[in-house]
Amino acid sequence: MQRKEFEALRARVERLEQNQRALGLPTEPWVSPNDAASLLSTSRATIMEEIKRAEHARIHGLKYDVVWDTHYRKTSSHWQVNPMELRKVIFQPPDKRPYIELPN
């Protein structure tokens, strides 16, 4: 890639990020569960339920379609969600998704 093309691409990315910020959209892939719920037009409780099921599956070595460090992660004491990746999974029909039953 030529330097001129690279500079044009960088300027375009900067404009896109400015537009995202102006619209109140994140420029990073990881957001809080509250922000993810807002972006996905769902509830925070739904997001947290998915994380709870995914954590149960991860800890017990079960297969689940919501995966650590792809769909969710935890930094210090805060959960973070990648809404673009999570959207691909949670809006599938229930019969297309694995079922994880949480213990009481």
Average pLDDT level: 91
Largest sheet: 2 strands, antiparallel
Rg over alpha carbons: 17 Å
Tell how many strands the DSSP assignment holds: 2
Strand order of the largest sheet: 1-2
Percentage of β-strand residues: 5-15%
Ranges with pLDDT <50 over ≥5 residues?
Answer: none
**What is the chain-wise order of helices and strands?**
HHHEEH
From the spread of the alpha carbons, the general shape counts as elongated
Helical percent range? 40-55%
The computed structural class is mainly alpha
> What is the CA–CA distance across the termini?
57 Å
Number of helices: 4
Please provide a brief summary of the model.
This protein is mainly alpha-helical. Helix content is 50%, strand content 8%.
What would you note in describing this structure?
The chain is mainly alpha-helical and 104 residues long. It is 50% helix and 8% strand. It has four helices and two strands. Strand 1 (72-75) and strand 2 (78-81) form a beta hairpin. It is elongated. The N and C termini lie far apart (57 Å).
